[in-house]
């Protein structure tokens, strides 16, 4: 009870101020945001993006235009001719929040720890070829890879931690609760299950943030987040399109939508015999009405998608690869594949019914609505889909034999990291500990060949062409039913009180570390 009272007091004091203005008894400019759930950790080696980006700096950081730009680094990474050795040069004026100097030894220790199996970082799979990191001198780091990897620069966004703090494992690291970064904010207070407060770091190398304090309240239930935004407890939150739209114009709140590479798709595990036939998978793709999903479920905040590639991948994206909504063609394809209408209108073949279960996260209303829409659309062509609400453990356990409403686009700033683990056959075997990699168990030799060649190519134009070729193959042999790519929606107030608010191309990750607040450390109070 005492903790609840304490948090209410913090938020209530801030709520007395006008939007974007400091509370009358709080000299700091404070931003109050509602997060969908509590952070499990503040360890930068636990997640590539998120709230740790406010506390830690990476060698590179996401820029507004959807590229990665130097952060701690000076200039772009410098590859050798074979793309197996990359040199990164560092700024020389950086200190951690404990006052110690950040140098190349800390960078080397961070990346060495990421790939150390004893540390068990979930980021290790992002560095498949990294074999050695060397501090050449205090401001120069050399990465050595076992194979050429053109996408390597896009992975260098891991928050750099002090070498001496990289002890234990990702599960018991002191950094999980006591972060020591070089970023614009430090952890001021963390009340488990309730809120987290960041304060401007006095040791930050850049200009001191005008927003001196960010208070993040953890509110799982979207209805409660909405009510507390409406009441003025919070200045902003991530919400579903439907909930965000309902707040437009309420007490100074406005809807902010950012482009993303975050897609939703229905996996089609090929351990289900009917789903192993590419003709059936094409038919399922033709049977769903993506435009209706965008307009109805997303309220227009998104676009139809046919593959995991999105406009965020630039020239590597082929906009001509799309599926029309064509139930007649879908029905014809299913008939040609031997699936004839049977009892109750469900198609049958050799005594088997064309049906499969479809899982979605129980707490995710958007995925639920998409699952129900897919089930309704496929019923029109004689396919029975049984929707099933699950938790994360249930999803991982069922992924080998059940379809799932997948969210993808974790690392979209290079086409390789956007699609490789989702499509390559080396990830096709069902692994309950890595259930989200290639969850359809997709095996397509031409896709493998193109993906492998593209990640080794030194020619950007050649790489982009290979990825466009991949999408042409996927159109004929789809691994899943890719449905939509999202715009992430947020409700916020007081943004006009600051200069420097920008939109950004977001990854799958969304929440208060993104949205209009992704660059909050650079805002200035409007004059």
TrEMBL record:
Keywords: Signal, Transport. Gene3D superfamilies: Dipeptide-binding Protein, Domain 1, Dipeptide-binding Protein, Domain 3, Periplasmic binding protein-like II. Residues 68-427 form the Solute-binding protein family domain. Residues 1-17 form the signal peptide. InterPro entries: Peptide/Ni-bd, SBP_5, SBP_5_dom. Belongs to the bacterial solute-binding protein 5 family. This is ABC transporter substrate-binding protein. It comes from Cellulomonas xiejunii. The lineage of its organism: Bacteria, Bacillati, Actinomycetota, Actinomycetes, Micrococcales.
